[in-house]
Write a structure and sequence with these properties.
The protein is 37% helix and 21% strand. The chain is of the alpha/beta class. It has a single domain, classed as Rossmann fold, CATH 3.40.50.300. A hairpin with a 2-residue loop joins strand 3 and strand 4 (90-94). The radius of gyration is 18 Å and the shape is globular. The two termini are 29 Å apart. The structure holds adenosine-5'-diphosphate (ADP). Residues 25, 28-34, 61, 189-190, 225, 227-228, 231-232, 235-236 line the site of adenosine-5'-diphosphate. Belongs to the Mrp/NBP35 ATP-binding proteins family. It comes from Mariprofundus erugo.
Length: 261
Amino acid sequence: TARVAAGASARQAIPGIANIIAVASGKGGVGKSTTAVNLAVAMAQTGARVGLLDADIYGPSVPRMMGLSRFRPEIDVDGKIIYPLENFGVKTMSIGYLVEENKAMIWRGPMVAGALGQLLGDVAWGELDYLFVDMPPGTGDAQLTLTQKVPVTGAIMVTTPQDIALIDCRKGMEMFRQVHVPTLGMVENMSQFICPHCGEASHIFSEGGAARLGEEYQTSVLAQIPLDIRIRELSDAGTPIVAAHPDSAQAAAYCQLAGEV
Ligand code: ADP
């Protein structure tokens, strides 16, 4: 569309950042932030220089999941440079550092665009091999702003195997296709549950759907992450499982994902 085409010409690389990768989902609650956080930490463990930008302006999760919610970033006197907060080898920035945790964000589209533009442009990221961007769910203002303002290397779509999530994931991939951002692949989250008592695997949210959708869009499932209580507990506690238990099978799934990116 004209709107997208006009924006595309204004895309400006962020100096020092080699790859900007959107971690996106069609729908909320599928584990996009959990995936973004663990992927970023896993990538940092390979020795890469990694940043994580929380673009979920309405529901920022990065401060809590990265164990940084009690910290505030340093801001230069004239308010023009914001310094990222670092943990587990990953530099992070989130609107959540700048507002109170319990305060609702009631913003219209242009305000979202403005805030995201600032988080992209005014943060002293330094040299990064990868900047992962934890997107808000869906296909809204933040997606348009990101893809219009900066050259996005590609998008990773997070979905559960459930039909309703896959339908929305398809919409997300359509949107990225329209703005000429390649889908690097999909992550099937909560793909199976291993019973801690008997070890039996059950497919709580169905199975096989992501692979079928991937075939349709000529993209692949980069990793399958199990539905696992420790992933949730550690994420809530602010220590991603990849950092807390790097030798676990769950961490291995995220490390495999990092290897595929
Ligand atoms: P989204 O970013 O898509 O809204 P979140 O990453 O915030 O989703 O995840 C939603 C909830 O599900 C969180 O409580 C998170 O800890 C939990 N969760 C995400 N992935 C898993 C998983 N693989 N196993 C168990 N819990 C998970």
